[in-house]
Design goal:
There is one protein chain. The strands form 3 sheets. Strands 2, 3, 6, 9, 10, 11, 12 and 13 form an 8-stranded mixed beta sheet that branches. It contains 15 helices and 15 strands. It has a domain of about 280 residues. By secondary structure, the chain is an alpha+beta fold.
């Protein structure tokens, strides 16, 4: 029987529950840190739950996951894991530099230009002793090249002719320099020389205006409408093939201190190219992220670049109406791109990448030449973070010391003799070779983001199946081979009759765009497992758990 007393009890019980639920107070003693006697409660940080903040937090978690991956190969696989068909990248290469490309290059690489100092006179004695040998090498290279042309049935284009002649000249000049300096500079005896190596690098750049399709897509979503015109990240892939690349086991000394490298005011004064790179003439392609400094991560001790020789043959196709100033800027842009990409690929083999910052600077030297005209550059890589908000907030900048083109000789006359040989150019070349790499670092300092002293490469794993899988996956990504099934496409009749005009409503929905499937969101590990036959199955023929091959994606 419901009495007034029971009603009052139930009412009091409900009020107590409401007070506990709606007006609960934190227990200060329960959240105090150890050793704290102030009696002040420690509350967790209030997180920003906006879409932009959650997106940045998710990206930071992914970057941290890449940092935690132990081996070099696994880090590269981890970067490619979100895209089965590869990324949409801006195609940087050493065969094409569009008009007015220097501001874009400085923005994309965060590079400050400086003037290259003149070579010291200490090289004069070596120049005098090598002068006759260098002239003889030039005359021999031209004579050998003429003989090679007589054996060809079809004439070569001007770019190919210049590249072949330059290759012969550089190999001969390189021999002369080593013969002259190797007795006094011991590091030249320890060089690893790569002929026409493969230099490739991948990185992300922020501060670029979004294309129209991205703006239109965001405007159609209520939670992204306000950020439709915000800048976004562009992905870049550089591909180059220098004539020669010299590597050493130690680093070149830095010519900028860490204090000088951190200059936010100078970073904000760098040119900003916010427009799409296609507006200058760069092309867009789809491929996986690749970082290759000319060798595989196989434990080679010569991991640091000393000097690379780049081609300027592409200037043969450049209209003369562009002027001398643009030609010089094109050389500067190519030197910055090739130096930045080579150092980035070397940093990748030490555990760093475009999302994980360098802990020490890297240096290299670059020469752009056709055998007759020589341009000398020195580059110091201080930072890799140029994506997202780092384009505005990162205080570090990279530096490139540049020089105007210099003539090594005037011409080779009809008699095959060298005319107007320039000793100053040879002196500058000797100073680059004589730059001694002397920076030594411990293994922990050299590779702070790699697993450890016993786990740096995929070959260090004890599991043979895991070693084979990681090696095969890494090499397959780097080979740039297409997938065995092509990327699904929308045919013209489908766009006309199914997308633009809904005229086939009775037809079964089987195509990916009808099922609201974004094929670009397919990840690298989304594929059918490989079947293992019973005869070779681990655990015997009746082991059903081992009927599919095991994968070791990071």
């Amino acid at each position: 029987m419901l009495t007034l007393r029971n009603v009052e009890q139930q009412r009091a019980r409900l009020l107590a529950i409401c007070r506990r639920c709606l007006f609960i107070k934190a227990e200060p003693q329960a959240v105090l840190s150890q050793g704290d006697s102030t009696g002040v409660a420690q509350y967790p940080e209030i997180k920003d739950l906006s879409f932009k903040a959650r997106k940045q937090e998710k990206a930071a978690e992914w970057h941290n996951e890449i940092r935690q991956v132990p081996t070099i190969e696994e880090k590269m696989i981890k970067v490619n894991l979100p895209r089965y068909y590869g990324y949409k990248v801006v195609d940087f290469n050493d065969t094409k530099v569009p008009y007015n490309a220097l501001p874009l290059t400085q923005h994309y690489t965060r590079t400050v230009l400086e003037e290259l100092p003149v070579a010291e006179s200490v090289m004069d004695q070596f120049v005098k002793s090598a002068r006759s040998d260098a002239i003889e090498a030039l005359e021999y290279a031209h004579d050998y090249y003429k003989q090679q042309l007589t054996l060809l049935h079809n004439p070569l284009d001007s770019v190919t002719q210049e590249r072949q002649l330059t290759q012969i000249i550089l190999e001969q000049i390189h021999r002369v320099v080593l013969q002259t300096l190797s007795a006094d500079y011991a590091h030249l005896n320890e060089l690893e020389v790569d002929y026409n190596p493969r230099h490739e690098a991948f990185w992300a750049v922020g501060g670029v205006d979004p294309p129209k399709n991205v703006v239109k897509s965001k405007e159609g979503r209520e939670w992204q409408k306000e950020e439709a015109n915000n800048t976004y990240d562009r992905l870049v892939q550089f591909t180059g093939e220098p004539y020669l690349a010299l590597r050493h086991r130690q680093q070149l000394p830095s010519w900028k201190s860490p204090e000088e490298s951190e200059n936010l005011a100078l970073a904000l004064q760098l040119p900003r190219f916010r427009h799409d790179a296609r507006s200058l003439g760069y092309s867009i392609k789809h491929q996986h992220a690749i970082n290759v400094p000319g060798y595989w991560p196989s434990g080679n001790a010569a991991n640091f670049g000393l000097l690379s020789f780049q081609s300027r043959a592409h200037l043969k196709l450049r209209p003369k109406s562009y002027g001398e100033r643009d030609e010089m800027e094109a050389l500067h842009a190519l030197a910055i791109q090739s130096s930045y990409a080579w150092l980035l690929a070397q940093a990748n083999y030490n555990g760093f990448n475009t999302y994980n910052e360098l802990t020490y600077p890297l240096n290299t030297q670059t020469i752009i030449t056709n055998g007759r005209e020589w341009s000398f550059y020195k580059y110091q890589l201080n930072t890799l973070l140029v994506h997202g908000q780092n384009i505005d907030e990162n205080p570090r900048v990279n530096y490139c010391r540049v020089s105007a083109p210099q003539l090594l000789y005037g011409e080779i006359n009809e008699a095959g003799k060298c005319v107007d040989f320039n000793e100053q150019t040879l002196r500058q070349l000797f100073s680059f070779y004589a730059n001694v790499p002397c920076v030594k670092r411990s293994s922990e300092e050299l590779q702070p983001y790699v697993g450890g002293p016993t786990l740096r490469r995929a070959a260090d794993y004890d599991n043979a199946e895991q070693r084979e899988f990681l090696e095969h996956t890494f090499k397959h990504l780097a080979s740039k081979r297409p997938r065995h099934l092509e990327l699904p496409e929308v045919y013209m009749w489908e766009k006309l009759y199914k997308i633009d005009n809904k005229t086939r409503s009775m037809e079964a929905r089987r195509r990916f765009f009808e099922l609201d499937t974004n094929v670009w969101r397919r990840t690298l590990d989304q594929h059918d497992p490989e079947y293992v036959p019973r005869a070779v199955r681990v655990g015997g023929r009746k082991n059903r758990e081992g009927r599919y091959k095991k994968y070791y994606y990071p």
